[in-house]
């Protein structure tokens, strides 16, 4: 999992759009192996469809109905939403909607997940829960993940590599590997040190803070 951290407006979301193919580069070339799906700050669930139907959208190309239903059921079990399969998005909490969105983008076996601050609209407790859920889900269904965040805690808890971006025009000014095994607790000495490393790389003097 690669986390992109940098100043607001430096181009983190633009980079995801280039990786996804939603934007074409003005110059240079983007090389990507495999297919990519994107998770945004606001989920992309269709409000008129149930959770089951939303997840099934990514599996429309599967010709066998039983195989398709089995895959939907497995994904909903993976994100702990089996008992909510017949609910509509407006009947779910913010965290549950993001879990449904995660199941939706995992459907169809995309190779790369592009995540643009997917938990930023959630309250703090829900964000902590979603970090644990994401780490657990990816352990069972591994993917390459490129994840944009402003949250230093989030980067330290989830990342295998943190790329520090400069101000516009953005360049990668530092790469920080984080080799701590997951799951990671915020109070773990290694996680606290990882947060300090990220803050130092961002040039922030207050190394007691955890978010920018």
TrEMBL record:
InterPro entries, sorted: AAA+_ATPase, ABC_transporter-like_ATP-bd, ABC_transporter-like_CS, ABC_transporter_ATP-bind, P-loop_NTPase
Pfam families associated with the record: ABC_tran
Record keywords, A-Z: ATP-binding, Nucleotide-binding, Transport
GO molecular function, one term: ATP binding
Keyword Nucleotide-binding: yes
Boundaries of every ABC transporter domain copy: 2-192
Protein name: ABC transporter ATP-binding protein
Native species: Spirosoma profusum
